[in-house]
Amino acid sequence: MYIASFVLKMVSNRFLVKVAIGGAIFTLTSISGMKIYIENKFQRQDFYLKSMDLLRNYEPAEERLGKPIIDRTINIGELHHNYTDGINARLRIPLKGSITNGALYVLASRETPKESWHIDKLDLEIPSHFQRWTFYYDPRDSSKVKITGGSDEADETSIIDNNAVQDTQAS
C-alpha cells in the first residue's frame, strides 16, 4: 500500500497526458503506415500492373486524359470499388493526366491463388466529360470479339457474339 501511494505521488497528471498523447501518435502512425503498405502492395499486384499497361497502350485514354497518365494512390477504404479475395479482384485506380483526371475500373480473376491474374474487364471513366466506357474484355473467351470505342460519336464498347457476326456476313 505504501509503495502504491508513493508511485502515484511521483506520477503527475502532466506525465500521464504526455504518455497518452505519445500512445495516440504511435497508434495513428502505425495505422497510417499499414494503410500505405497495403496500398503499395495493391500497386505491385499483377492485375494492377497489367491493367495500367493496357491503359497506357490505349490511345483514346492518352488523347482524353493527356500524357503522361499517372496512377494515383487507391483508397483501400472504398470496399465497393477496391476488393480482392485472392481469386477475384475489383479495383478503382484514380488517374491523372495532363488534360484531366479519370479512373480505371478493373475486374480481374484467376482459378487458384497460385495462378497469375487475368484481366476480365477494364472501364475508363472521365468525370469531366461525363463518360465511362469499357475498352477491354478478356480475350480468353473466344466466342466474343473485343471492340473498343474512343471516337467522339461513340464512346461505348460492346461485345459482339462471333456467331452473330458470321450470320450477318453470310446474308
TrEMBL record:
Keywords: Membrane, Transmembrane, Transmembrane helix. It comes from the Eukaryota. The chain crosses the membrane at residues 15-38. It comes from Lottia gigantea. One of its GO terms (biological process) is mitochondrial respiratory chain complex IV assembly. This is Cytochrome c oxidase assembly factor 1 homolog. Residues 147-171 are annotated as: Disordered. Pfam families: Coa1. InterPro entries: Coa1. GO terms for cellular component: mitochondrial inner membrane. Residues 159-171 have a biased composition (Polar residues).
